[in-house]
Protein 1
Amino acid sequence: MLRSRPRKPVRKQPRRYHHGDLPRAMLQEAVQTIQTHGTEALTLRGVGERLGVSRTALYRHFADKQALLAAVATEGFRSLRVALFEAWDTGGRGREGFDAMGIAYVRFAVAHPAHYRVMFGGVVRPADGSQEAGDLGTDAFQVLVDAIVEQQQRGLVRGDDPRQLALYIWSVVHGVAMLALDGMLPPPTQADALVKFANERLRTGIAP
Amino acid sequence: MLRSRPRKPVRKQPRRYHHGDLPRAMLQEAVQTIQTHGTEALTLRGVGERLGVSRTALYRHFADKQALLAAVATEGFRSLRVALFEAWDTGGRGREGFDAMGIAYVRFAVAHPAHYRVMFGGVVRPADGSQEAGDLGTDAFQVLVDAIVEQQQRGLVRGDDPRQLALYIWSVVHGVAMLALDGMLPPPTQADALVKFANERLRTGIAP
DNA sequence: ACCTGAACACCGTTCAAGT
DNA sequence: ACCTGAACACCGTTCAAGT
């Protein structure tokens, strides 16, 4: 709608080979389709059509639709990892940066809801090519673990196992993100408010 | 596999009308199919076939596949609400019961992963008949809010807005559940361990 | 009212064939 | 190697017609 790029490029010339990086083009198309029209609107035939390529050409680069979705998930984890580290780093690598990380996490999910669901929606099975996605998920997770360790060294966080602390905190932001995506937090700014509240509770606990 | 019930009932008689509660039968079939073979294996044609009913008969009771999935989600929220209240109530409606609630929540998700994903996977859009599902989600949520209020009255929980506290705690258990479903917590017992840890952190906070 | 078969449009995927 | 059209099996959904 907001894009001026035409959906179906009209070819007056006879169909020619797609010179260039077709796998990358497919991935971009898939990500964009999911972002603007939802995952259920993603069809291999549509991707090929919009790229001016035959339907079966895609199978040269991705084993099947699952593999393409796995690549989409991988791309998402890569972006998420970058966003998290940036928030942590520019936030001063302390209490403030950590809070910024939480906000950045939820904002990423809210800004790319369908993409986020592909990353965590169970579409990517542990069986098929999701190992890469899992590793990248671990990479994003590692940013969180590192941030915790650094805070522990500064005496900002208690000395529990940083991996378990990270799992706990990931659970919180992931949970907030999912609730936001499911519309459980009516006003859109409510998500930020909940993250802020969650950050406070994470620090001081709920005991009176 | 473990069931002895035949997949495709053989009818030697000419097809007869399905006397009985077809909507309920459909819902049960859908829930069972999702539980045992995954959501992607759920097809209206298959449901009809297994029920000994024509494909189009289903449309008399559910507008479309989305509506059937919405009913599945509703059923899930109902079960979850029961499981949560039971854990809270038999746990003594105190600190122990509250911890039991958290464990019960995650166990429900782990025991019915596909069903849980239908409830929270965004399949049920806010647009179509998901209002009932949303209301039931609110019902399950209310159990949590009530538990918090009761603990506040007993001086077990600080006097914050119980609704926001409930959202926060729901985020935690929901996040743990999703991570467990995505296989981020390798050993299966790891989920229980994380919930236990989360329950502790919820009480005392992560500040040193 | 409730159910039926036939038909439509649309998928993912495969395959023999082209350059 | 990379791409193509045709074909196959399988969906969700609609519709005129039966009881």
Protein 2
Amino acid sequence: MEEKKNLIIVESPAKAKTIEKILGKNYKVKSSFGHIRDLSKKKLGIDLEHGFKPQYVIPDEKKKVVSELRKAVKNAGHVLLASDEDREGEAIAWHLSEVLSLPDETTKRIVFHEITPTAIKQAITSPRTINLDLVNAQQARRILDRLVGFEISPILWKKVKPALSAGRVQSVAVRLIVEREREIHNFKLQSYYRISGEFYLTLNQKTYLLKADIPEKFPSRKAALEFLEFCKGKTFSVLNITKKPLKRTPPAPFTTSTLQQEASRRLKYSVSYTMSLAQRLYEAGYITYMRTDSVNLSSLALNASRKKIVELFGEKYAKTRHFKTRTKGAQEAHEAIRPTYPDRETIPGSKAEQRLYDLIWKRTIASQMEDARIEKTTVTIGTEGSDKYFIATGEVIKFEGFLKVYSDRNGAEKAEETFLPPLKTGIPLKYKTIMASEKFTQPPPRYNEAMLVRKLEELGIGRPSTYAPTITTIQQRGYVIKEDRPGESRNITLLTLNDKQDQITEKTNKETVGKEKAKLFPSDIGMLVNDFLLEHFTDILDYNFTATVEKQFDEIARGGVNWQQMIEKFYKDFHPRVEAAEKITHKRTGEKVLGKDPKTGEEVIVKIGRYGPVVQIGRAEGDKKPRYASLRKGQLIETITLEEALDLFKLPRTIGIFENKEMVAGIGRYGPYIRHDNKFYSIPAQTDDPLTITEERAIEIILAKREAEKKKLIKTFDEDPDLQILNGRWGPYIKYKKNNFRIPKKQDPENLTYEECMNLISEAQKKKNK
DNA sequence: CAGTGAGCGAGCTTCCGCTTGACTT
């Protein structure tokens, strides 16, 4: 009789494929595609009267998986449940055993943390049973999250706006963004001065320039000026030179969070883009699993990396290292994210996939390389009668070590060196210039997606599989908006003492401040919901809430606490707060009175209206209707001033007549514009303002646009009026029936024939359909 | 690329964590 194959069930199909390859013909390996059962999507799914008993259902999209697993179990000998070794994995194993009615005698639970032949074979020889305490910890986690989410969200629908949501993770993420915005807004800028000098020295008929700074801040223009006056005509000298060896250690291999941060910093990828690229790399077998909190590398990876490093750079560059996770709540069910085969430097695929792989490869290899050794030289420069010293530093790399593949600073491609001229103590120095430049203290930075992930991870909130979805959710709910801001110009004072006339000159420079790229800003709704939740659910919004309940889940997992009792205790405190929040009568609109309209004396009010944030002048009384104007992008109820609010009523405004038609200035969806004869002309925001733009300037803009339009049309064809060759923002292109097509660089657009154009179009369409 | 801002009521929305496709844009 034929021996039945044993069945191994893992979570991921890609993993199943790999393991099947490793184990060969005696094993069938199937995947559960994550959880197979969950609480109902629509209902609470928890029996509050009977010990919070969860009501699990198999979601429609999982029915096929389950029926296939049933079939596989029927044909199998032993069943080995090999889901991940963490709370969720244990629960998956338990749900599988329940749903598939697996008998104890033929069912085993096995775990491994890396997909290597040794690890898997070792796991098979040491099976255990399902750890029900760990499963219960997962159930408690699941139920707590469901209670929080499904009891608070409906309150928001009633008291704020439909379809909003709240949760243990997302609401704290929003809170971080809201509070940071307020910190930035309340930040009091302080001006101070930094003094730096350029000195020169002559050695063996060669002149060297040496730049040095005074580390202390000068509190005022007066203090800076006094110091410059003092320096007039003084000779400086090198007081001290110290050389100090420094070493730099490579960073640990990637986890989900650090991969997202580095891909954001170096490649400017959004968190979700990074994850979808990583998913493709994983499925193609190029990298290990991309949702992990572990920095651990398998011994197989350590060996292969070492071999590659020796081959590329030589023995002295290799150093095998074991990294330890310091992350709060890490469960370390997988390895770090690394190339499956560290000897593979490049992979086929899209440009973006290749760049992400390159980053992962470099980070992994670097983690197994020697420290970089750097010699840092510090030179102290001073003059008699002053206790302020200029400091110059130089850094020379003595041994590159890991910096050969992975520079650690600011995402720069290469590690940077700074050199100093050959100096000796006591050498006199003449100054060329001594400059005091005004600086401002800086508010804390706004979060971008990856910085937010890092903060969440630091607080132990969320898991590798949820970072990207959480960030998408808070944007989809409209709590947070990812956008760019142009920044504003501000004046800074520059005082320069020059050796030419030994005179101090003063100059005003401009610098841009507050420029932002892809940063997270809270919306009015985000702020309103945050304040509402903070008022009624202080505990859940607490940054330590997750850490606190995690400790209790750990207790359950250790078998010390009963999960129902834990939830019971939580709910006894939580549910009355839900009821209290439901009792408030008014809808929250965030209404705020800004002041009085100087023209009419009526109240100017901002609030969230039916279609979003709005300013309102006057209250509705009898027949009297208030006037309304929507807030603009970037304006917030919390920070808008009375003047800004009143400005919103000044547009659109008629600025004059041109060719017997009115010109109207306004601000629309795509920025400031002039409307004339039903055509729109955009006003360049950097140079003009629709509130103040003159008739003459408006005509200028209209004429300039007409001129550009004329130049835009390069060629038309008698054969087909739908076909045009046009001049666009990025050069000439073909337009055909609302679609645009590129013209190859080598072709001269003026001489293209009708046939050539049609060929280009059909080729482009063929490519697209592939 | 503009302006909406009354009110009622039915039916819908929602959490976090595990996994991928199957869709459209």
